[in-house]
Amino acid sequence: MSAIFVYITVPSDTLAQKIAEAVVSERLAACANIIPGMKSLYRWQGKIEQRDEVLLILKTQESLFPVVEARVKALHSDKTPCIVALPVTAGNMDFLKWIQTETTK
What we know:
Elements: E1 3-10, H1 13-25, E2 31-44, E3 47-61, H2 65-75, E4 83-87, H3 93-102
């Protein structure tokens, strides 16, 4: 089992909560961290944009990423949401086993 953290930016706490509840209840992620207060500065359609965002981090299995990505896209309000898988290269084996136990394929 390869664990990953899925890094997602979301425009509001409400939407972050909605996505987190969906993927955890559907066993696509073992855990979701919602971190408010992020400011993002980015280029979009030729202009520099800035907005307040919420960081959402999901803990799941690498094999579930395609399903997680599709589910987040279906719930997300952005046309091109930031959904990025970050590999977990080492960690507490009990924690990593917990991720596997709490997620299903």
